[in-house]
Write a structure and sequence with these properties.
Helix 9 (about 195-210) packs antiparallel against helix 10 (about 220-245) and helix 12 packs across helix 14 (about 310-330). The chain has helices at about 5-35, 50-60, 90-95, 105-125, 135-145, 150-155, 160-175, 175-190, 195-210, 220-245, 250-255, 265-270, 285-305, 310-330, 335-340, 355-380, and strands at about 65, 80. The model has no long low-confidence stretch (mean pLDDT about 90). The protein contains 16 helices and two strands. It has one domain (about 5-380). The protein has a two-stranded antiparallel ribbon. By secondary structure, the chain is an all-alpha fold.
């Protein structure tokens, strides 16, 4: 078998593995929708709260106006309303492809699912997994059913943000820093917390080069920070061009109580919402956050005891998970934490060498929570 045949077999096997995992998740979603007498092929079932903002931006651009006398605000209200609280990357992609598919609701859902599939495929490429086996299928189902996986399928920029983040992981490990920087630019243009990706890469370079005594190689942080910063600048430039205000994003987001908060206090406030005498499906939302926090504590112990910081992928993944987990708790306010948690997907890199029986146990937990969260999404409890 020549080199080309070997590479083709690898690609085909990875596509088969990804297809199996993806189809299993879709069967589950179809089942949940069937219980609710809803159709998987009804584009609007994938549409929730912020989805409307993204689609409106794609259709009409940005709006920014005083809230006074509107949406229940008093006539002397000083808050600003509009859709400038949402970044332009995802709407721009929808706009570009709307010339091919005019139904932008359908298009938004397709884009999310395509990048969800592509993200799963990228995980296999990063880990060089190619063998079609029961263990590999079970492993890939862990990211496929990761916490908040419903948002990988819905009309939100979560899956596309993850895809470019994972592409950045792959390029970073190959030490292609300018291409990694390009991924940082895209991610920071797509999602408000996307700028954290640049910090994860830069911190990883800093720790690695300091450890190896290669101080001069810290220059590799430059393309990372430059490109990541450019993504944010481009987003704010679009806000300025369309609504003539550089601070439009912050003004709209300030209504949701975002700012600097004590993360421990925010976690405590979350736990106080649980009614242990009358547990309900809604408490699964909090259970997800609790499990992630417990998982992170266990991961931290495992990371330092096993000295995984000597491994590029594990160091990067740990820094990424740390930043993307803690930052939303610090920002606080009325942030939809369950949606932010769906970005913690690189957590699964640490599970690759688990025994199959442990993977199956974790998968059962993820499927159970994912099923309930999907139910809550389709019944509009989640937004």
């Amino acid at each position: 078998m020549n080199l080309f045949d070997v590479k083709m077999k690898k690609i085909i096997n990875q596509l088969v593995l990804t297809s199996i995992a993806f189809l299993i998740t879709q069967v589950m979603l179809i089942s949940v929708l069937h219980i609710l007498n809803l159709s998987y092929f009804d584009s609007e079932v994938w549409l929730r709260w912020d989805s409307g903002h993204y689609l409106a931006i794609a259709q009409k651009g940005y709006e920014f106006f005083p809230c006074a006398g509107k949406f229940g605000y008093p006539v002397d209200a000083t808050e600003m309303c509009g859709n400038t609280g949402w970044f332009p990357g995802y709407p721009l992609i929808i706009k570009l492809f709307s010339f091919v598919i005019e139904d932008i609701i359908l298009l938004g859902g397709l884009i999310s699912k395509i990048f969800y599939f592509s993200s799963l495929l990228t995980i296999l490429v990063i880990l060089n997994i190619e063998k079609i086996s029961f263990k590999n299928i079970v492993y890939l189902l862990l990211p496929a059913f990761f916490f908040g996986f419903i948002y990988y399928n819905a009309i939100f920029p979560i899956s596309i943000t993850l895809f470019f983040s994972l592409q950045g992981f792959y390029l970073f490990i190959k030490r292609k820093y300018w291409l990694t920087g390009f991924c940082c630019l895209v991610v920071s243009f797509l999602y408000p917390t996307g700028f954290l990706l640049s910090f994860a890469f830069a911190l990883s370079i800093f720790i690695r080069e300091i450890k190896e005594g290669k101080i001069k190689d810290l220059i590799n942080c430059i393309p990372i920070f430059f490109c990541g910063g450019m993504g944010v600048v481009l987003a704010f430039l679009i806000f300025h061009i369309q609504v003539d205000d550089w601070t439009a994003f912050m003004q709209v987001q300030s209504k949701y109580g975002h700012g600097l908060h004590n993360p421990i206090k925010n976690v405590g406030n979350m736990l106080r919402k649980v009614s242990f005498n009358h547990l309900s499906l809604n408490d699964v939302i909090i259970l997800q956050s609790v499990l992630i926090i417990i998982g992170y504590i266990l991961l931290s112990c495992f990371f330092f005891i096993k000295k995984l910081y000597h491994h590029d992928l594990y160091l990067l993944s740990y820094l990424y998970v740390t930043l993307f987990l803690i930052f939303p708790w610090v920002v606080g306010g009325n942030l939809s934490m369950y949606r932010a948690e769906s970005l913690l997907l690189p957590f699964v890199f640490f599970l690759k060498d688990f025994k199959t029986k442990w993977m199956i146990s974790l998968l059962a937990c993820l499927v159970g929570i994912g099923g309930v969260m999907s139910y809550l999404f389709f019944t509009s409890v989640l937004i």
